[in-house]
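Hi U.,

Before I forget, here's the chain from the pilot set. I'm dumping it here mostly so it's searchable later in email.
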Amino acid sequence: MGKKVDKTNVMRILDQKKISYRDYSFDSTKLQGIEVANYFKENSEQVFKTLVTVGKSKEHYVFMVPIAKELDLKKGAKAVGEKSIEMILQKDLLPLTGYVHGGCSPIGMKKQFKTFIDATAKNFNTIYFSGGRVGHQVQVSPSDLQKVIRITFASITKDT
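Structure:
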């Protein structure tokens, strides 16, 4: 009998929607950000972080950007049609999304917010993002991700 996999809500939702994915776990006390990409020998441009913002209208928005990049708040505001947006406070993340910092996934939030992903995601057959728990990631194709949540591709990172 095989070892039972400890599934996250993200994995259960992907299973429910019959979406193909791979899941990975790692020691989050030793690895973060780019270190995770290096550990799994992933291209850091292919590994995305999930950021939650609030606009002047008090609407919340989710952005997925490559881990080595930074969200450009002006580009993000333009993408969502707001005058300006700002990152939510870390203490507000769990009550708003149901996720803790470092384990926030665009899939399975308490409420589905408008979600924008950096256009570079289209360059890859699959992307990696949080599996909904600190120390967990999932690998999914951007087109399959669109079958689970509504995402909009946009140029939202700071120019380097």
